[in-house]
């Protein structure tokens, strides 16, 4: 088994809280990376909608697929009934309403825009509003990508965890309910 170190840089109490909340996902990430990635990772906080990002050199896209299966199994075991893909069911000028649907086929989480990626939505707090949507700060996205970095001149494995209830511009809110 490869040795592996992770350097986590924190800036605020809110970010520390998010890291603690997603600790198990980070542990899963470290275990999955041991399938074939290199030795050291760095994690940078900030700019990810209350979440964080992680990058690591990656030899080939098969590692992305292996990791995606690891995460799907993790979500099935730890978030069963509270993770999935999304589909829009209503919009307004300042809000978008989604159905969150759990799917068990890894292909349902795959996309290739802007690069090869798998995107999962998951719920950390099952509490709901009067209208049946999950309360604010309950839904997060977990996205892994395989994409080329012109800066590093190599392919990278990228992981993003972000709050999913507000657009990066701060003007549009997103609401989710299980279908």
How would you characterize the overall build of this protein?
- The protein is α+β, with helices and mostly antiparallel strands.
- It has one domain.
- It contains 3 helices and 10 strands.
Which terms would index this structure?
alpha+beta; 179 residues; disordered N terminus
What's a concise summary of this model?
This protein is of the alpha+beta class and 179 residues long. It has helices spanning 13-21, 23-33, 61-78, and strands at 5-8, 40-45, 52-57, 83-91, 95-101, 110-111, 116-123, 139-149, 154-163, 173-178.
The ordered string of helix (H) and strand (E) elements is: EHHEEHEEEEEEE
- The parts where pLDDT drops under 50 for at least 5 residues are 1-21, 34-43
Cα distance spanning the termini: 41 Å
The average pLDDT value, as a whole number, equals 79
Shape: globular
Q: How many structural domains does the protein architecture include?
A: 1
**Helix amount:** 10-25%
β-strand amount: 35-45%
Q: Give a quick account of the main beta sheet: strands, pairing sense, barrel closure.
A: 10 strands, mixed
Structural class: alpha+beta
Number of strands: 10
Radius of gyration: 16 Å
Number of helices: 3
């Amino acid at each position: 088994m490869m040795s592996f170190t992770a350097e986590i840089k924190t800036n605020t109490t809110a970010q520390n809280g998010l890291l603690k909340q997603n600790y198990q996902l980070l542990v899963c990430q470290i275990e999955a990376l041991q399938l074939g990635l290199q030795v050291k990772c760095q994690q940078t906080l900030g700019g990810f909608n209350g979440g964080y990002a992680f990058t690591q050199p990656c030899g080939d896209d098969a590692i992305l697929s292996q990791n995606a299966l690891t995460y799907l199994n993790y979500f099935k075991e730890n978030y069963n009934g509270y993770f999935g893909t999304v589909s829009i069911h209503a919009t307004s000028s300042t809000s978008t309403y989604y159905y969150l649907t759990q799917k068990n086929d890894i292909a349902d989480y795959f996309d290739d825009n802007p690069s090869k990626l798998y995107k999962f939505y998951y719920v950390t707090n099952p509490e709901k509003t009067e209208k049946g949507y999950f309360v604010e700060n309950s839904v997060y996205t977990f996205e892994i990508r395989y994409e080329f970095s012109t800066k590093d001149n190599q392919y990278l494995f990228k992981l993003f965890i972000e709050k999913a209830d507000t657009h990066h511009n701060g003007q549009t809110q997103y609401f989710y309910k299980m279908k």
